[in-house]
From TrEMBL:
Identification of the protein by name: SAC3/GANP/Nin1/mts3/eIF-3 p25
Presence of the UniProt keyword Ion transport in the record: no
Keyword Transferase: no
One GO process term, biological-process aspect: proteasome-mediated ubiquitin-dependent protein catabolic process
Keyword terms of this UniProt record: Proteasome
All copies of domain PCI, residue ranges: 70-243
Family: Belongs to the proteasome subunit S14 family.
GO cellular component, one term: nuclear periphery
Amino acid sequence: MSLNVLTPQLKKAFDEQDYSLCLKLLPKIKVELARFNLLVPVTSSDGKKFNPEDLLVTRYILEIGALASINLKDYKGFQNYINQLKPFYKQNFKKNLKSQNQKKIMALYLLLLLSRGEIATFHIELISLPNKNLDLKEIENDLYLNYPIKIERWLMEGSYDKIWKLINDNNSSKQLKEFQIFNSDLIKAIRLEIIDCIEKTYENKKLALSNVKNLLFLNNEREVIDLINEETNWVLQNGFVYF
């Protein structure tokens, strides 16, 4: 099938939030894009530049791939689409042709990196954002990008309570439903960071079980015991945790 047939089908599936169908259609569409050398926004071998409208269509198709992947928690697929989108985001399009999805998608990518604990890569990607046609003021004030930036800053400061409140703030999470996909992974990453801090901070190497519960933002002592067994070599004895 041609792009003229497949692309409207993809848009319809995405608008209807049928993300599985999107991922089924995309390989066929990418074959057609590759056939016309549209998957990479570079000058062709004969020196002919691409029509900007063709690049915009390809960019939109790849963005659907990224958003469909993240909604299905296909993180590997999402990463692949991010890599394919980066050259398009570096293109110097006119202001009215800038992507409406770029900041949202890059914010999701930054959240993915945070949830994996890939802080160094997070910083590299954050520094490179101005090279993707985003100025510093635009980045700092953006509704989407500001979310992972605040989480990373507070993570470095050890302000875990601020992160906890932000993640559990219904008003913040409504800004983008895809943010909620990372909540459990981010909370786990925060708890592992707190565990590391506890081991380094308390010289007597023990804490009351109730204190550990509060520090790790857990609801009850059973959850503390489960987390200790899963993630640490700590020992529980007589209401105290030894590490």
